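Notes to self, MOB3C kinase:
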Amino acid sequence: TMALCLKQVFNKDKTFRPRKKFEPGTQRFELYKKAQASLKSGLDLKAVVQLPPGESINDWIAVHVVDFFNRINLIYGTMSEYCTEKSCPIMSGGLKYEYRWQDDSKYKKPTKLSAPQYMCMLMDWIEMLINNEDIFPTRIGVPFPRQFQQVCTKILTRLFRVFVHVYIHHFDSIINMGAEAHVNTCYKHFYYFIREFSLVDHRELEPLVRMLQGWGG
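result:
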């Protein structure tokens, strides 16, 4: 099934994954539009991530988690042909960091996977969570569950590892594709967001800390 899963994920005729969309007319859609508008206006990214006055923090986090999932999906999808079982037999960030996969179903213990396998499991797992109405409710008046921010922390921590792997192992491919500016902007936006709301443990950020110092971030 893994080979089939990878084949579906990396089928070049389609976008990497069907995008999760916000329903027009909903509060979350309006919030998404607001976030996208300030992003496009070229405002300082540190300002863009701040919670707009009067908005719910959980709604704001939900909108960004879904948007980052969509965008990081596309980033990895465009360069997945360079990330293979052969080139990346371990999901890692250089020699110092190795990421093992664990979930509540197939992999109950942290398990070594190749980078493409890890990415496939990760994207499936996130997609399942963000489409679960009990965790990411879309109906007006339905409250977020108590553990909502914990779930988002787990999602964002694992999405951060995609950046770690891509930057450390595939940066030459990013440059060759002319995607460096796009990936950097997405990463900065993601980084300022998780810092603004303390959503990812600072120890998880260590693999890319030198790059951040280069920006004065």
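- Confidence is low (pLDDT under 50) at residues 1-16.
- The radius of gyration is 17 Å.
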